[in-house]
Amino acid sequence: MTLLSIQNLRVHFLTEDGIVKAVNDVDLVIDEGDTLGLIGETGCGKTVLGLSILRLLPKNARIEGKILYRGKDLLKISEEEMRKIRGKEIAMIFQNALTSLNPVLTIGTQLSEPFELHHGLKKKNAIQKVIEMLKLVQIPSPSERVREYPHEFSGGMRQRAMIAMGLACKPFLIIADEPTKGLDVTIQAQIIDLMRELTKSSMSSMLLITHDLSLATELCDNIAVMYAGEIIEYGSIKELFKNPKHPYTQGLLDSHPSRGLKPMHGISPSLINLPEGCKFHPRCALAMKVCKNKRPQMVEIEKKHFVRCFLYDYD
Amino acid sequence: MNKIILFKNFNEIAECWFRQRTKHFSKQKTLVIGLIMIFGLIFMAIFAPYITPYDPVEVNLRNNLLPPSWEHPFGTDNLGRDVFTRVIYATRIDLLAGFLVVGISMTIGLLIGIIAGYYSGKMDKILVGMIDTFLALPDIILALVIVSSLGPGIYNAIVSLSLFGWVKYARVSRSLTLSVKEKEFIEAIKAIGASDFYIITRHIVPNIIAPILTLAALHIGHAILSLAALGFLGLGVQPPMPEWGAMLNEGRAFLRVGWWLSVFPGLMIMTTVLAFNLLSDGLRDIFDPRVREEVIK
């Protein structure tokens, strides 16, 4: 069943330098129990997409389109209703665990907040729940650790604490924004294992935002590749890695160390000044005349494998 | 050989440790001394009737203008009242009024400052305009005008001083709120469904309270000084209640024959203001991470 469906989402920011077109006509579907990976370079609008689902964008953002969560348009409901969904039904795990925890409050105080806000628990009872959560994310001696401050935690433990906070109310959808950023490889592996276990056991869906391809292969069922605010390719994880169609996806995979570490030419375009036609054509080795003028449409080339490129658009 | 090196190292470590502790203390000294002085003052205020056998307001004309002696350590005034007793009883009024002024100002200032900083936009512009207007006004002179129009008295003095005292808190808390609300953890807390009120009370206030408290400690000294100034001008506490500023004024006429009438209340004002300034300095050393680093080094 469809849990979240994003339709024609467009997010633009009005800034002094011009309009930043961070997300352009994005369509995405997340089914219940599914994990969707959103991969792309830094600054292609991945995080903005994640934040727009929770309506946490700054005031200068202009949002169009629909974000349907269980049939409800999240962009239309009141702030009050939205607050009840945040943390309880849709939770977010932020990328920078150190700056995403309040430095002056203890871990216990902060992690008990979801319980206090959504279940109306008193601090004393909430702390018990927090200790259980910390046990679940495998933090040693949790009953002592709850009294410590974020700076007394190591990087991996902080990230575990963030995950515990995100999963506290057993949300239906978890938006994980680069949960392994800044962690070393062994800790990354532990975090990945932990997240896989937790999402499987709680049957939650997840939107995993990352630029780390190996993380995506470990966790995701489907992958959406994002470039300059657009989804350019979408497919199941096996299909996409075996048979990448879009030149950008191919380049992205080839730049991975396991596939020969071949870097892509050029840099990703500024979101203020996007190229006409296909956004990728200035960097594309296979660019044709039509790519410069016309925006390609999503084409289903195989079952559940979509690509936005004129190479496969025969009409 | 190994042992010697170990021992030498141990010595160095011990020395280092010792130096750290002592340095730490030497920097904290201001705080400790300030706190001791303030506790002394509060003790005096609370136990005033047990410290001195005399009554602060009872007139005893036979004993007027006695110089300091064992019986009357600070002498007596023109109406024969023991100056020491009056100075001690005045501590009650001055400290309480100082705390009240700071409490009221801090509450109003924090409220306005946080609202202005948190809800930027129109609200912020209006409140900042208000803050700037108040900052442009000469506070003590306007306090004078207000007290004289409301009528002299301790409550009016407290009200008029608070009316201008909140501005500093508003200014500081607004700028602190502006920087804190952009932090990622505020976004993270929003993402778990917290309301604005929850964010402000549970996350913003604890993050900005340290500098505000430093400011408050400094402000108490300042407020007591202003109260004394109003008292000196006859606009604060009314006779026969003892208050340091008013006592200074009463002693002014007898300066040639009885220096003790003005000198001791003056010294008390100085001591009190000094105590709170030391406290404020010490608090700043603790709260300011840059200074704290130096302390630890």
From TrEMBL, chain A:
<keyword id="KW-0472">Membrane</keyword>
<dbReference type="InterPro" id="IPR003593">
    <property type="entry name" value="AAA+_ATPase"/>
</dbReference>
<dbReference type="InterPro" id="IPR013563">
    <property type="entry name" value="Oligopep_ABC_C"/>
</dbReference>
<dbReference type="GO" id="GO:0015833">
    <property type="term" value="P:peptide transport"/>
</dbReference>
<keyword id="KW-0067">ATP-binding</keyword>
<keyword id="KW-0406">Ion transport</keyword>
<keyword id="KW-1278">Translocase</keyword>
<feature type="domain" description="ABC transporter">
    <location>
        <begin position="6"/>
        <end position="253"/>
    </location>
</feature>
<keyword id="KW-0547">Nucleotide-binding</keyword>
<dbReference type="Pfam" id="PF00005">
    <property type="entry name" value="ABC_tran"/>
</dbReference>
<dbReference type="GO" id="GO:0015413">
    <property type="term" value="F:ABC-type nickel transporter activity"/>
</dbReference>
<comment type="subunit">
    <text>The complex is composed of two ATP-binding proteins (NikD and NikE), two transmembrane proteins (NikB and NikC) and a solute-binding protein (NikA).</text>
</comment>
<dbReference type="Pfam" id="PF08352">
    <property type="entry name" value="oligo_HPY"/>
</dbReference>
<dbReference type="GO" id="GO:0016887">
    <property type="term" value="F:ATP hydrolysis activity"/>
</dbReference>
<dbReference type="InterPro" id="IPR003439">
    <property type="entry name" value="ABC_transporter-like_ATP-bd"/>
</dbReference>
<dbReference type="GO" id="GO:0005886">
    <property type="term" value="C:plasma membrane"/>
</dbReference>
<dbReference type="InterPro" id="IPR017871">
    <property type="entry name" value="ABC_transporter-like_CS"/>
</dbReference>
<keyword id="KW-0813">Transport</keyword>
<dbReference type="GO" id="GO:0005524">
    <property type="term" value="F:ATP binding"/>
</dbReference>
<dbReference type="InterPro" id="IPR027417">
    <property type="entry name" value="P-loop_NTPase"/>
</dbReference>
<dbReference type="InterPro" id="IPR050388">
    <property type="entry name" value="ABC_Ni/Peptide_Import"/>
</dbReference>
<keyword id="KW-1003">Cell membrane</keyword>
From TrEMBL, chain B:
<feature type="transmembrane region" description="Helical">
    <location>
        <begin position="31"/>
        <end position="51"/>
    </location>
</feature>
<dbReference type="GO" id="GO:0055085">
    <property type="term" value="P:transmembrane transport"/>
</dbReference>
<dbReference type="Pfam" id="PF00528">
    <property type="entry name" value="BPD_transp_1"/>
</dbReference>
<comment type="similarity">
    <text>Belongs to the binding-protein-dependent transport system permease family. OppBC subfamily.</text>
</comment>
<keyword id="KW-1003">Cell membrane</keyword>
<dbReference type="InterPro" id="IPR053385">
    <property type="entry name" value="ABC_transport_permease"/>
</dbReference>
<protein>
    <submittedName>
        <fullName>ABC transporter permease</fullName>
    </submittedName>
</protein>
<keyword id="KW-0472">Membrane</keyword>
<keyword id="KW-0813">Transport</keyword>
<feature type="transmembrane region" description="Helical">
    <location>
        <begin position="126"/>
        <end position="147"/>
    </location>
</feature>
<keyword id="KW-0812">Transmembrane</keyword>
<feature type="transmembrane region" description="Helical">
    <location>
        <begin position="257"/>
        <end position="279"/>
    </location>
</feature>
<dbReference type="Pfam" id="PF12911">
    <property type="entry name" value="OppC_N"/>
</dbReference>
<feature type="transmembrane region" description="Helical">
    <location>
        <begin position="212"/>
        <end position="237"/>
    </location>
</feature>
<feature type="transmembrane region" description="Helical">
    <location>
        <begin position="153"/>
        <end position="170"/>
    </location>
</feature>
<dbReference type="InterPro" id="IPR035906">
    <property type="entry name" value="MetI-like_sf"/>
</dbReference>
<dbReference type="InterPro" id="IPR025966">
    <property type="entry name" value="OppC_N"/>
</dbReference>
<dbReference type="GO" id="GO:0005886">
    <property type="term" value="C:plasma membrane"/>
</dbReference>
<dbReference type="InterPro" id="IPR000515">
    <property type="entry name" value="MetI-like"/>
</dbReference>
<feature type="transmembrane region" description="Helical">
    <location>
        <begin position="95"/>
        <end position="119"/>
    </location>
</feature>
<dbReference type="InterPro" id="IPR050366">
    <property type="entry name" value="BP-dependent_transpt_permease"/>
</dbReference>
<feature type="domain" description="ABC transmembrane type-1">
    <location>
        <begin position="95"/>
        <end position="280"/>
    </location>
</feature>
